[in-house]
Amino acid sequence: MALRLHILWLVLGLILLTSTPGEAVEIAPGVQKTVLENGLTIIVKESHRAPVVAVQVWVKAGGVYEKDKEAGISHFIEHLLFKGSKDRPPGALAEEIESAGGAINAYTSYDYTVYHLTVPAESLNEALAALADALFNPAFAPEEIDREREVILEEMRMRQDRPEIKVSQALMGLAYPNHPYGRPIIGWPETLKKIDRAAIVSYFERRYRPTHMTLVIVGDVSAEEAISQALGYFGQAPFKKALPFKIPERSSPPQGLKVLKEDVQEGYLQLAFPGPSLTEIKEAALADVLAVILGSGRSSRLYQKVREKQELVSTIGAYSFTPMGPGLLRISAQLEPENLEAALKAILTETYRLRFYPVLPEELERAKTQVESDFIYIKELMEGQARRLGVFQTILGDPLAEKTYLEAVRSVTTEMLQEAAEKYIRPQDLAVAILLPQEASGLSPEKLAAINEEALLAAQGISSSERGFVAPTYRRVLSNGLTVLVREIPDVPTFALRIVFPGGVRFETKQTNGLFRLLAATWTRGTSQHTSNQLAETIEAMGGSLSGFSGRNTVGLEGEFLSRDLKKALELFSEILTQATFPEDEVKKAKGPVIATISSLEDNPTELAMREFNRLLFEGHPYALSPLGSKEVIARLQAEDLRKTYENFIRPSRGVLALVGDLEAEKVFQILEDLLGGWHQGQGSLPEPPSPPPPLTQARFSTLHKEIRQAHILLGFRTPGLESQDRFALDILAAVLSGQSGRLFRELRDKEALAYSVTAFYRPLLGTGSFAFYIAAAPEKKDRALKGLWQAIYRLNTEGLNPEEISKAKKRLIGRYEIGLQTNGAQALDMALNELYGLGYNFAIKYIRRIQEVGPEQISEVARKYLGGDLYVLVSVEPVSEE
Predict the structure, then answer these.
(1) Four-residue CA torsion sign, 136, 142, 147, 151
(2) Domain 256-378+395-460 in CATH: superfamily?
């Protein structure tokens, strides 16, 4: 995990506090901590931003605690704790949480396992009861162990189909030879198959002790009441002494080369140097700032030099991995295979420069601002705050290290950075992992050594002077016709903005598919006043972000800024909105990454299946096209095409601008009127939107083959869209079928062990929509998997839903909807799109009410009307036959 991200979760001030067991101490305003008599730590933080509470249990159980023969057992147990306790049957934990309108999941890392859930605040007691029961009373039923082993084997196959995961694991193996961090957290098939119930119980007894656990609660709660409730459930477990543990040292620094060949189109490159542990806070702060300067954001050195100037990669980034043990400085890139050697040399040259020349003062200040701003933005999410407290406590033994860390960041000097670069970025400690297409030329160890030496020399020859729902909402229409929405939420000093216009795929043809995607990618790349680099540096110096986006129905701009920079941020936003120039050279640069993204998605079998599904379902309509566009069209488009589209579509009277955060509405309206009042309508009318897609007259089938290990199946039907009153019943149907407590998960994964991933989803569009069932299974299970999907549809149409299922699904939908709108950006986009679509900016309230009003008869009628029958689309992406 990048230290910027990891530290966000990991640091908050070293404050030494003592208290008797069970006595809560306020360690910061609104934050209380206590240690129960059984040794379990509880941390509660009050945050009344939304009527939501996040609950997380952090367990000192992960890959680092495992023996070689146990590899993957921590992850195995994480799965099994959802498979029943002595008092609850399999799936009950997820069902109870989702029925309360919440969401629950878990993940395993090298240093810990985390069980996390988010629920409406009123459901805290039920959530604590269910979670404590799962953690302290697991059944570990033999039949569930066998079933879940099959599920994890499917997960392993899925991971083998993901290029980024595969090359990342190869790099970790090089970086950590003979060390637990070098093993996959999920384990190996051979170790998983040998882990029996006795081994599971033994490991559980060792690691799942109250003295190894931290319970974190953040949300709209009273700290005292939350601790009291938690004590009743988590205080009952008996005391067991914490087991001593020493983190293994790295036996040798990262070294070596691993080249993989797969059925992919792009090249995937990752490299690493040694880095510090999180326990070394000052060193961790240095590494984090170093990574930001090197490869975080458009103004970073690697982005500017390797991607923008030399155009050798489509994506590139650097980040620091700072676990409990020895860390890494990691760099990753995606590129055309023929550019591999040139890109590798350019990346290493720019990285080694940090050893020989001090960074520029403005670079350093920009990086510090970026790191600090991340701490502020994370406060928008309850689960983000909980995760930060939990990881700090688990790794550092104290949830309040933010002050110490930020002080370390602020104290970083150019001299300190250069010393850190000399310490960690050493040519002899380089590890490189590469994934290439089968037909591509590889890279030999001898060639890597030559490139490494050349890059070190080149770095020394470069001159140091070279630069590389509840808040009030106000609506107003400006004098030029632009609709502006402002929602005041003052608890975090940030704000988000989203502006949307009709556009996107809905206004494209086969000949122009990708036009809006390329427009969005280049919208912020130059104005009549500033170049692309000047804009990027100014935005990132404020700790902000501003970029274009496009989708099926819209095109627009999205931004996040600190509230203290309101006027400056809106000035820059207005300039980009109204004075974009789409320079020829920037359009050319942007094409490569856009095309690479399309190629990357083609490497993902799930995305490939979804694209083929849409092509067949919406044939004859723009929705059949890819939202990312066609590689051939994008390669053909010119800057003049983008300018004409910009002039035709980006008109004030067609747009909706929403701003949410620490703002004063009247002040915002006045600034925007001053900045945008002179922005007038262009000439011409908006093209007519397309008619609804022609009706299906028969079933449509497609089978694609790829060098993968699972069969990915999509079975779906045409439905009405956003404007239909049936959409609410369709949403409920999808909620009944999906999720860990959903019918598909229970029947096809839990009972049949047919798949790791199985779900159903409803996607409403303008004038039409789709309802689809997805499952990924081993090839030999695909026929049974497809039969299982049809059986689920048959049951819906013959048996219907019982009142309890409907009630749970409604709570789940409403809870997830509210949880999904925690951030300023999510609320701004929700308001802007709903206003643009004619639903009204306050549609969120209407949506919840309409979900609550849907009755069982309407749901059954909608299921029979749209699901089943002969008018369907079936797509399968399957492994290439061995025959």
Answers:
(1) positive
(2) Metalloenzyme, LuxS/M16 peptidase-like (3.30.830.10)
